[in-house]
Description:
Structural class: mainly alpha
CATH superfamily of the largest domain: HUPs
Number of strands: 5
Shape: elongated
Oligomer: single chain
Strand order of the largest sheet: 1-2-3
Order of helices and strands: EHEHHEHHHHEHEHHHHH
Distance between the termini: 34 Å
CATH topology of the largest domain: Rossmann fold
Amino acid sequence: MTERKRVVSGMRTTGKLHLGHYHGVLTNWIKLQHDYDCYFFAADWHALTSEYQDPAIVKESTRDIFIDWLSVGIDPEKATLFIQSEIKEHAELHLLLSMITPLPWLLRNPTYKDSQAEGQGGDNETYGFLGYPVLQAADIIIYKANLVPIGVDQLPHVELTREITRRFNHLYGDTFPVPEPILTELSKVSGLDGRKMSKSYNNAILLSDDEATLKKKVGSMVTDVQRARRNDPGDPEKCNLFPLHPLYSKAEEVDEICAACPRAEIGCVDCKKILLKNLVAGLAPVHEKQHYYRDNHKLLDEIIAAGNDRARSITRKTMLEVRKAVKLS
C-alpha cells in the first residue's frame, strides 16, 4: 500500500473564524483530509506576533477555532488537530533554523516589506515578526511534510521554507523533504464593506453569528455601488454581495438573480433577503455542532489532547534526528 503524503497547515488564533476562513481554507482542508495524512494546528505562537500586548484573545480563540474546525467537518479521526505551543519541539527546531537563516532572506519577505512600506513600524518591529517565517518553516518540516496548501499570495512564504530546508540539508545532510505548495482555489468572499473579509476591518460574517446578527450584517452589506435607486439596472459581477449566492443559494435562484438584476426586476433588499434565508439555513448545521462541542468540554479536551500526543510523537522522533545531524545529540 502506498504511504499517503503528509500535509501540514495552521491558523493563527486571533479571533473567531469567519466565512473567508471557511471558504478560503477550511473547505480545502476538508477535502485534503480524505486523501492525505493531514496535520492542522492552532498557531498560537504565531498569533503573538500581533497580539503579544493582549494575549488573552489567543487562549480564548484557540478553543473557538477547534470548535469551528470540528463543526464544519474537520474529522479528528482523519486529521491530527493540535496546538502549536503544546509541541515544544517546534520552538527548538525554530531556534536551530534561525542559526542558519540569512537575515536578507527575512528582510525580503513580502509581509515584512509591506509593513515597512506602509509605515506600520512600532508593534511590527519585533524579532518575532521578522523571524516568524523561520518558525513557520519549523512548523512544516518538523513533520517532514510533503505538501503545504496555500493561496497564490502565500507562495513566497512557502518558497522561503523551501530555501531554509535546502540550506539545512546542504549543511547537515538530507534530513527533511523539501515541501511543495498545493495551490488552492480560493472562493471570493469579500467583507460587508467590499474589502477583504477580516476581523481587523470589523467587516466579517462569523461562522458563529446567530440569525439576528446575520440579518443585521447582511442588511448592511455594500452591493453594486452604481445602483443608487431601485429601478437602476444592476450588475451581479460588480456586486459585493453576489459572490455569496453561489455558495449558499440554489442554482435556480442564482440564475434568476443574474437575469433579473440587470433589468432592475429585483432590488438589493430582496436580493439580501434571499441570501439571508439561505445563509441561515446553510449555517444551521454548523451552529448545531458548535453548541454540541461547547457543551461537551471533556470531549473537546480529549480531541485536543489526542492530537497533541500524535503530533508530539512525530516531533520528538524528528528532533532526535536533527540533534544528531547538527552534532548535538
